Structures are given as C-alpha cells and as structure tokens.
Amino acid sequence: MSKHILLTGGAGFIGSHTYVALIEAGYSVTILDNFENAHSDVADRLERITGAPVSVIKADVRDAAAMKSVLNAGFDAVVHFAALKSVPDGETDPASYYRSNCAGLMNTVEAMRQADVRRIVFSSSAAVYGSADAMPISEATAVAPENTYARTKAFGEEYLQAIAHAHPDFRIGLLRYFNPVGAHSSGLIGEDPSQPPGNLVPVIARVATGDMPSLKIFGDDYSTPDGTGIRDYIHVEDLARGHVLSLNALFERDESHLVNLGTGRGYSVLEVIATYKTVSNRDIPFEIAPRRVGDPAISYADVTRARELLGFEAQHDLRSMCASNWAFAAQSKALS
Ligand SMILES: NC(=O)c1ccc[n+]([C@@H]2O[C@H](COP(=O)([O-])OP(=O)(O)OC[C@H]3O[C@@H](n4cnc5c(N)ncnc54)[C@H](O)[C@@H]3O)[C@@H](O)[C@H]2O)c1
C-alpha cells in the first residue's frame, strides 16, 4: 500500500507543486491548509493536473486539538510547509510569526508523537545563513539569522533536531531552500501570492503583465560583474522533486538529513530581468534604488550534500524558471 503523507501548507506555492510530484512518485497525499495565503480553487487545479480527486483538510496548525485529530487519521509522514514567509511582516508583527511558524510546528510534532508518526520534512530557508561571506554556502556555514522570519526557521530546525536527538526513532529532513521560482509546466499552478509580492520574480511578473509600472533594483554598486545582487534561484519543480527524494531517504534509511536545495549557481538581478524580458517579449522597466540593509552581494549554495545524500540535481535553468513563471502569470492575467 502506498505511504500516506500529510502536507501542511500544501495548498501554497511550493506545497502544491510538491503535491503533484508526490502523487507522480506513487505516494498518497492529503493537504492541510488554512488558506490564508492560498486560493480556494487549488484542489480543482491539482485534480486537473493529476486526474484524481484531491484530499484537502481546512485546518490551522496553530490549533493543537485540530492537529491531534487530523494526525490520528493515520499518516506515515508529514511535510511541513505551513508558515508565514514575509521578512518585512515578520519585523512588524513578530508575535504572528512565532505563533504560526514555531507554535504551529510544535503542535504538528506533538500531534505526530501522539499518533506515532515518526517522519517529517521541514521547509527551512537559506535565510538562516544571514549574510554569509564565503561562497558557496555549505551546510557547515554558521547559522546566523538576521530577521524574525529567519529566526523562526532556525528555531524550527533546532527544535526538530532536539526531538530527533531525544527520540531516536524520529527521522527529520531539514531542507534549506534557496530562491524558489517558476511554475508547473501545465500553467495551472504557480506563485500567486494574495499579498503584494516581495520576491524578485513575482514582482517582475507583475511588471510584465502591466499590473505594476516598474520595479526597483536595490543597489547596482555591489562588487559583482554588473553591480546587482546575485542569488541562487531554483525551479519549483526541481524543489518539489527534492521533497520526494527527502521523503524516500527518510523511509529507506535510518538517518536524518539537513541539506541545501539550490542549483549551485547564481544569477544577477539584471540577468533575471533580461531573461524574463526575452521569454515574455515584454518591456520590464526598472529603477535603481538604494541597497537594502542586510542584503548580501552574492549568495549561492554548495549543493554537494544534496547530490551525495539524496541524489538531487537541479534540472531547470533560469530560462525555464522565467518561461514557466511567465506562462502561469500570463494565463492568470488573461483569466482575471
Ligand atoms: N517561497 C520562498 O521563497 C521560500 C524560501 C525558503 C523557505 N520557504 C518556506 O517554504 C514554505 C512554503 O512556502 P511557499 O512559498 O509555498 O509559501 P505559501 O505562502 O505559498 O505557502 C504556505 C501555505 O501555508 C498556509 N498556512 C500559513 N499559515 C498556516 C497555518 N497557521 N495553518 C495552516 N496553513 C497555513 C498558507 O495558506 C499557504 O497555503 C514556508 O514554510 C516558507 O517559509 C519559502
């Protein structure tokens, strides 16, 4: 019988792509989401992609009793995406970030323990590294979070490591994502935040569709070849596959893992804009604004460990990330 996986936050951007990848890999999957940053029609879209009914539970990870009752239904593992993810919002409303990201994880793990579920994959972030100097960033790089959001992710890792240490039958997969972008090849699901986007590619998409007049590049005087910041972007379909490999490893081996998921190469802001311009055939006006505090000049992952432990290798390049994002954005705009 196929293993049954609970995806908290599974209706969101990365969760919905991971749902498809897990179904394709033969897992049976249930989504749990409170839909505060997801659209209500995501289940219909996932059903169109997978050709099968989608099991969705509307619940909140902050509700300990609800999590206990859900986990009692019998799962083999949890993938925990549910979280708030805006860096600026975390600074103005830290209480909400600690409640959702920390208390929500603790409720989930407590419910898992009571229901005897012993495998969890956790959405962590390259944000836990802060502004690391030495590149590439390996998993041995010091954890030095510089904002509330990043601190809640560092807490999640530390908490799960303590649980795994105290309960040796617990297996944890800690995945530090670099910058997920792109959309599913069907064009049916993608990054469609209900809040104004903070990440580069969704902002570029809004400029390309005409929903925003221009975008701001924060700093063009970094010591990089074109002066703009360099980041490691990873296609969300590659990232989704990383979760399948992580779960496989937790089921097949008696050990936990902590890995970076990126491509191992960086692209500058100007390179991303130029690529998006080519694939969309739209003008992308921009203006140069001052650097933002805490933004490093360069950040890209050392992906050796993900390759060695999980057999993970990113397959999509920047053009594919931008083209799939544009296909989704253009289709969503046409339907709106
Ligand atoms: N997108 C990124 O750039 C990025 C980078 C690194 C890590 N992450 C992490 O990956 C995970 C998924 O991110 P995403 O980009 O898909 O974000 P997302 O906002 O699209 O998905 C998160 C989902 O969780 C749900 N959710 C939020 N609070 C909840 C709660 N209390 N109870 C139940 N559901 C709740 C939201 O409705 C949403 O569907 C998050 O943990 C995020 O911090 C994201």
UniProtKB/TrEMBL annotation:
InterPro entries: Epimerase_deHydtase, NAD(P)-bd_dom_sf, UDP_G4E
This enzyme's EC code(s): 5.1.3.2
Biological process, per Gene Ontology: galactose metabolic process
Pfam families xref list: Epimerase (PF01370)
Catalysed reactions, as listed in the record: UDP-alpha-D-glucose = UDP-alpha-D-galactose
Cofactor(s) in the UniProt record: NAD(+)
Record carries keyword Cell inner membrane: no
Source organism, top-level taxon: Bacteria
Pathway connected to this protein: Carbohydrate metabolism; galactose metabolism
GO cellular component term of the entry, any: cytosol
Signal peptide boundaries: none
UniProt GO molecular function: UDP-glucose 4-epimerase activity
The entry's keywords: Carbohydrate metabolism, Galactose metabolism, Isomerase, NAD
NCBIfam families: galE
Oligomer status and interactors: Homodimer.
Protein name, per record: UDP-glucose 4-epimerase
